[in-house]
Design a protein that fits this description.
Blueprint (H helix, E strand, L loop, with lengths): L5 E7 L6 H11 L5 E9 L1 H15 L2 H19 L8 H6 L8 H12 L2 H4 L6 H9 L2 H4 L6 E8 L4 E6 L5 H7 L9 E3 L2 E5 L9 H5 L4 E5 L13 H32 L12 E5 L2 H4 L12 H22 L11 H5 L1
Parallel strand pairs: 1-2, 1-7, 2-3, 7-8
Antiparallel strand pairs: 3-4, 3-6, 5-6
Helix pairs in contact: 1-2, 1-3, 1-13, 2-3, 3-7
């Protein structure tokens, strides 16, 4: 008689090219035959990873999901090879993935202060859209019944999160989730304009809870803790980016911790509240030296380096905490997020 699989849902953060770390985590988890990945929520790069993952599982299962994720990131690197955003020789020698001396990055950084994408990119060219549309049949994905999928974007005018579920998933929804407003025009869906979901939910946890998931693994790629207070202008901008893209997550995890504490104390909350087991992979140490410029670095060697970090982190988590799935949290929510 086959053993019942352990169910695990994944909440995937966004962070540009650092999403390749998440790719590595997924690549390793897909090799665990006794784990059922029952649902995904994602924002920005996390939304792209989650969408390709869900589609692969829907089509042929874990092996296909691994193949499509590899294809997606290879296509990203292939497209980036023709971009002006290339690491300079000095970056390649000492940058470890940063592009501090890249003429293309410095020009783009300066231009974003004075020119909007409505002027700089009037036709709203975005190669990621074409890559996703080539890999994922979104009409077929809407009928997926092997997992759940939630993609988060930010409603620009209404200032709130918008979560697209499977019946409403589209290439526009995923691109809305990854729409950096300094680079791309807002994505319009049903008369509403959307920016990157990281401003309001990076990633959203509550859709997975509402969907009945009990074990939720958060895959972070934006560090919560850093060693030193920023001093340079670049370091300050990097930290502002990290804080803003973690703020909604911190608030949501605090709400989960509050409910968890009430349940532990025996407070009757009704049938709508239950214990949620939280697990976490967060390569803070590995990304400490990577700044915001590296999130735009899609060089294949760099992406492979990040993928390796993700696989190592997933391997370590599996060896230490896999047996906690369905039994308890492997992350101390209060210590990590409060």
């Amino acid at each position: 008689m086959p053993t019942e699989k352990m169910k695990l849902a994944l909440a995937l953060q966004g962070g540009g090219s650092h999403g390749a770390i998440t790719w590595g985590v997924l690549d390793r988890l897909l090799e665990e035959e006794d784990i059922l990945l029952e649902g995904f929520s994602g924002t920005s790069a996390g939304a792209m990873n989650a969408t390709v993952l869900a589609y692969g599982l829907h089509m042929e299962g874990p092996a296909k999901a691994k193949e499509l994720l590899n294809t997606f990131w290879w296509r990203v690197a292939e497209s980036a090879a023709y971009s002006p955003l290339q690491a300079a020789p000095w970056d390649l020698l000492f940058g470890k993935g940063n592009m501090d001396y890249s003429p293309g990055f410095l020009l783009a950084e300066t231009a974003s202060l004075y020119v909007s994408p409505y002027q700089l990119n009037p036709f709203d060219a975005n190669p990621l859209r074409d890559i996703l549309a080539d890999i994922v049949d979104f009409a077929a994905l809407k009928h997926c019944n092997v997992t759940q999928l939630f993609v988060c974007a930010t409603n620009v005018r209404r200032g709130r999160a918008k979560v697209f579920d499977l019946p409403h998933i589209s290439v526009d929804a995923v691109m809305a989730s990854a729409c950096l407003p300094t680079i791309f025009k807002a994505v319009t869906i049903d008369g509403e304009d959307y920016w990157d979901g990281g401003y309001m939910g990076n990633p959203p946890i509550s859709p997975l809870i509402d969907a009945g998931c009990q074990d939720i693994m958060l895959v972070q790629i934006n560090p919560i803790n850093i060693e030193d207070t920023p001093r340079t202008s670049t370091e300050i901008r990097d930290r502002i980016n990290e804080l803003s893209f973690n703020s909604s997550l911190m608030l949501e995890m605090r709400r989960i911790a509050f409910v968890d504490r009430l349940l532990d104390n025996g407070v009757p909350l009704g049938d709508n509240f239950r214990k949620i087991f939280i697990h976490n992979i967060n390569p803070e140490a590995e990304v400490q030296e990577l700044n915001m410029s590296s999130k735009l670095n899609a060089n294949w060697a760099f992406l492979q380096q990040l993928k390796a970090v993700g696989r190592e982190k997933a391997e370590a988590w599996l060896s230490q905490h896999k047996d906690k799935i369905g039994r308890e949290s492997s992350t101390d929510i209060r210590e990590t997020f409060l």
